[in-house]
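Bit of a strange request maybe. I'm writing a small parser for structure token strings and I need a real example to test against, not something I typed by hand. Could someone generate the tokens for this chain?
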Amino acid sequence: MPWLRAADIVDVFAYAVVLGLFVEFFPQVIAETYLLTLLTAVLLKLVLELVVWVKTTLLKRVKSASSTPRRVISIVTLLLIMPGSKFIVLELTALVFQGQVYLGGFFQVTALIIVLMLARGGIRRLLRPVAS
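Reply from user aminoacidic:
Good idea to test on real output. This should exercise your parser:
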């Protein structure tokens, strides 16, 4: 499958570990089974990839905007996407898993996403080939 890279699989496993730790240490974060934790990690991977793509696209639009109104619209959209993405994660999780997975509230999801992105970046940096 050319659309599935090894880095994507590593991301999902890193997300599953982080999510498992959040389930363990934060009573507001609930995943009833390990399978649900893995499926939630896949869902988070898909949603976060989409959000990162949207944010990157909006940042490019801000930098390449030829007029002030376009730049302002791109910045406002970016500012709406940042907190809005957390609500998307919460609602999508509730919709897909119908109460069997609960990621807490806005602040828990924000912390979870920050830790997920840090874990992703750290693992990718660790696995990056060293130039000799």
